[in-house]
Specification:
disordered N terminus, 8 strands, alpha/beta
Length: about 325
């Protein structure tokens, strides 16, 4: 996820306000109204499964953010170390790993793919993605070692599932500036390749900054006028998409809410609104595929976003484990017949 400025340039505040009012009025309110209800109340104590998962998530984040640290082309060898770690974890889980290199300014970088092939409708594809690079000057524990850790654990949990649709777990390079929303953004390159193959991608979930939560009122902010519609306490996970991905937002959050007791909010709003397209799902939109971001909202909640203080001890691994368990249920539902 990126800076607090809209990367495509400022839009008139009046246009944003009128658009949101139109989307939330009358029958069109289904763009912000979601199926099911967000969990309310005290969180139960973690059970053994959640504790084990929380420990695994912490181990991934600590390895990526502390043992490797900054992960981008500015730090020699850091991307290779990260690719090796992700590839090893996937192979140990039983996956065949494909490295998908591409050239950029005479340098070679690569995306990483592992596939769980479907049976009945294997030509329909669900992509679960997370970027593994970091912004300059940050260890990237939340942004985005948390997303990588979640994708790895979901891949492990679903390895023996007999799914109808094919699931592709993809780890993207070059999500952060200066490559963000350019032709060499890893997710854009990957999605463009799928489009050239005429692949039938029915859903893409971008896992982006999943680890920070707060029970303090006022801990959550939004760009106006979203603040009029959503809670000001940063204890929830958000499912965010553009209007064209409305059905995917609704299906995903419904399955999540049926799978786990955890606060969740959803929105399918115009992609030009600040923050809506600030992750790897953008590359899929540009290639005509439905895509959403699952996120703790990053800069709208997390004060250490894109700083050197984005370190592993800041994250809440028990809550993150519950989010991952809910996402396991959502992915199973999306990959079913």
């Amino acid at each position: 996820m990126k800076t607090l400025q809209n990367p495509k340039g400022a839009r008139p505040l009046l246009l944003i306000t009128l658009t949101l009012l139109a989307l939330t009025a009358g029958p069109a309110g289904c763009f912000t109204s979601m199926p099911g209800k967000s969990f309310k109340g005290d969180m139960p104590s973690p059970n053994l499964k959640e504790k084990i998962l929380a420990d695994s998530l912490r181990a991934h984040v600590e390895y990526l953010a502390e043992r490797i640290g900054r992960r981008n082309l500015e730090v020699s060898g850091s991307l290779e170390l990260t690719v090796n770690y992700i590839s090893r974890e996937l192979r140990e889980a039983g996956y065949e790993v494909r490295l998908l290199p591409f050239e950029m300014n005479s340098l070679e970088v690569c995306n990483i793919e592992a596939e769980q092939r479907g049976n009945a409708i294997h030509d329909e594809i669900v992509v679960i993605g997370a970027h593994y690079d970091t912004a300059n000057g940050t260890k990237g524990a939340n942004d985005n070692a948390s997303g990588v850790a979640a994708a790895l654990e979901i891949a492990k949990a679903l390895r023996d599932d007999n799914t109808g649709r094919t699931i592709k777990f993809v780890f993207f390079v070059n999500e952060e500036p200066p490559y963000f929303q350019t032709g060499v953004m890893g997710s854009y390159v990957y999605a463009m390749g799928l489009r050239e193959q005429e692949a039938n991608v029915v859903a893409m979930l971008s896992l982006e900054t999943l680890g920070y939560y707060s029970d303090t009122p006022g801990s959550q902010t939004y760009p106006f006028p979203m603040s009029l519609l959503y809670p000001d306490t940063g204890d929830f996970i958000a499912f965010v998409g553009n209007v064209g991905s409305r059905s995917l937002v609704r299906k995903s959050i419904k399955a999540f809410r049926q799978s786990v007791d955890f606060p969740s909010e959803g929105a399918a709003v115009p992609g030009f609104l600040p923050g809506v397209g600030w992750s790897d799902h953008w590359g899929f939109w540009r290639n005509g595929y439905p895509g959403i971001m699952v996120t703790d909202t990053a800069p709208y909640r997390y004060s250490h976003y894109h700083t050197y203080e984005d370190t592993p001890e800041k994250l809440d691994y028990v809550r993150m484990a519950r989010v991952v368990m809910g996402l396991e249920g959502a992915v199973r539902r999306l990959a079913s017949r």
